[in-house]
């Protein structure tokens, strides 16, 4: 898989540093509360599991699977579909959406709207990667790991056609791997 990577964008050490920084800040900001961390599957699973090791306060988590891509698409369709909904009620909860990457903002825009209709007390976003140059829908990233340029990235939970999720770093995928053949 390494041979399919053009360059490493975020190293393992940089990932660990970002997780510690974000987790420590979240613990400070949510002290005295019992926040619900909502992991957006599947890409954010590795990030959330590493992140919460540094959130040294009582908290809970749940998982939601949504998609605005599909198959071999490398760009969003803008149509957000809920594949697996939450098992936990959001009513009165302080919710932290845990996302792997914020690109166009379509998915998070829809989730914030949905969570507010479910009467969450507050909704904040923590994202490992932020790609602001691609933003179409304005969403405020409350906790940002690493800002990246406009490149197609994989690794550390992020995939192309369900591959590369298990890379321990974030790398730029070589264009010939995903370009139309």
From TrEMBL:
Q: Where in the cell is it found?
A: Cytoplasm
**Organism expressing this protein natively:** Companilactobacillus mishanensis
Which coenzymes or cofactors are required?
Mg(2+)
- Pfam families the UniProt entry points to: Pribosyltran
Protein origin, superkingdom: Bacteria
Q: What class of enzyme is it?
A: transferase
Enzyme Commission number(s) of this protein:
2.4.2.8
**Name the UniProt record assigns to this protein:** Hypoxanthine phosphoribosyltransferase
Q: Name one GO cellular component term.
A: cytosol
Q: Which residues form a coiled coil?
A: none
Q: Does the keyword Glycosyltransferase apply?
A: yes
Which reaction(s) are listed as its catalytic activity? IMP + diphosphate = hypoxanthine + 5-phospho-alpha-D-ribose 1-diphosphate; GMP + diphosphate = guanine + 5-phospho-alpha-D-ribose 1-diphosphate
Example GO BP: purine ribonucleoside salvage
The similarity annotation says: Belongs to the purine/pyrimidine phosphoribosyltransferase family.
Name the InterPro entries for this protein.
Answer: HGPRT, Hxn_phspho_trans, PRTase-like, PRTase_dom
Cite the source lineage. Answer: Bacteria, Bacillati, Bacillota, Bacilli, Lactobacillales
For this UniProt entry, the molecular function terms from Gene Ontology, in alphabetical order, are: guanine phosphoribosyltransferase activity; hypoxanthine phosphoribosyltransferase activity; magnesium ion binding; nucleotide binding
UniProt keywords, alphabetically: Cytoplasm, Glycosyltransferase, Magnesium, Metal-binding, Nucleotide-binding, Purine salvage, Transferase
Sequence ranges assigned to domain Phosphoribosyltransferase in this UniProt record: 14-160
The record's Gene3D superfamilies line, in alphabetical order, gives:
3.40.50.2020
Q: What CDD domains does the annotation carry?
A: PRTases_typeI
UniProt pathway? Purine metabolism; IMP biosynthesis via salvage pathway; IMP from hypoxanthine: step 1/1; Purine metabolism; GMP biosynthesis via salvage pathway; GMP from guanine: step 1/1
Q: What does this protein do?
A: Purine salvage pathway enzyme that catalyzes the transfer of the ribosyl-5-phosphate group from 5-phospho-alpha-D-ribose 1-diphosphate (PRPP) to the N9 position of the 6-oxopurines hypoxanthine and guanine to form the corresponding ribonucleotides IMP (inosine 5'-monophosphate) and GMP (guanosine 5'-monophosphate), with the release of PPi.
């Amino acid at each position: 898989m390494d041979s399919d990577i053009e360059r490493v964008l975020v190293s393992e050490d940089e990932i660990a540093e970002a997780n510690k920084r974000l987790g420590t800040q979240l613990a400070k900001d949510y002290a005295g509360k019992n926040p619900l961390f909502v992991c957006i599957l599947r890409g954010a699973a590795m990030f959330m599991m590493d992140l919460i090791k540094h959130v040294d306060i009582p908290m809970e988590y749940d998982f939601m699977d949504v998609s605005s891509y599909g198959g071999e698409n490398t760009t969003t369709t803008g149509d957000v579909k809920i594949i697996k909904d939450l098992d936990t009620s959001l009513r009165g909860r302080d919710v932290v959406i845990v996302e792997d990457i914020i690109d166009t903002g379509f998915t998070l825009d829809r989730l914030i709207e949905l969570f507010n209709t479910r009467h969450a007390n507050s909704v904040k976003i923590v994202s490992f990667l932020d790609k602001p140059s691609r933003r179409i829908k304005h969403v405020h990233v409350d906790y940002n790991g690493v800002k990246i340029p406009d490149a197609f990235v994989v690794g550390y939970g992020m995939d192309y056609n369900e591959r590369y999720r298990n890379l321990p770093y974030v790398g730029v995928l070589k264009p010939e791997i995903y370009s139309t053949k």
